[in-house]
Amino acid sequence: MPLDDAEDGRQPNTAGSSTSTPGPHRKPTLKTIAELTGLAVTTVSRALGDDPLIARETRQRVQAAAAEVGYLPDRAAQRLRTGRTNVISLVLDPHEEILGYGTSMIRGMTATLRGTPYHLVITPHFSDTPQIDPVRHIVRNRMADGILFSRTEPSDERVKFLLEAGFPFVCHGRTELATPHPYVDYDNYRFTYQAAKKLIASGCRRLFIILPPERFTFHHHMRHGFMTAVREEGVGFEIAQGITLDSKADAVRDHVAARLAKSDPPDGFICGGEVSAMAVMSATHDLGLEIGRDVRLVAKQTSGPFDQVRPRIETIYEDLSEAGRLMAGLLLKRMAGATPVSELQAVLEV
Question: How far apart are CA 163 and CA 344, in angstroms?
């Protein structure tokens, strides 16, 4: 006897045709939707999985029926049957720049995954633990079908582990590993090169740059672009010591203020993020200096709200939404197989 009939004291109805909707306590199943639509259970299952071999009209009709009766797939059963989780995990490192970075990138990823069976799940990684820990946990416990992550290192342990495991991934940032792998990156060399040239053209003679931590690949790309520009132009320069783009905003502000108070201060700043740029702006304001008159600043902009910051400063835009869109799209291709790795790599231009 079914549990729902026993609980309300009714005897099960064994006569007559099956009803088109589930009882008040009965969980709707694929069979429920099949009865509603007049389709085979296998067709219903494929339509709910958005199988492109099923006509779009049929998929829409099945999905509408499923929504009407409140059907929810049994994820555990699906995983046992198919070996897939329909989950993509984005590993994010919480840091000062994460607000604009994370929301912009997630916006692009979810736009690409919309209409697919995949759900995006955020997995945090904290700086006091090895970067590989959350990646290893996901793979060993089969918590996702693919992984997206950022802030790569030249010899990235996550990339090596995932390549050896044959587990689909796309990273935001390149490595120096010999084995090709999927990635989406931004041309950070061109960013700092152009930023330095802009400052020099505006009359700056001593440039100051705040870089990411040295262990990251994009630290080296940014440094290379900056050094190429200042050497070509023969101007003075400083690379911030004791602070990075990952430093707390207060620490960046205090460090810049102390440097500006000394002799021969820099007159042009390059910041690889919005938070560090605002910290520099705070330091100059506290010292009674004016951006655009006493010092100049070029920053990497990754979010629309930064347009509201005053005074306006010159920025070079990195489209993180586009990066997220590309990363998710390349991962879908990677999971489907057959696409050469060389076609799963992209560098967004400045």
Answer: 14
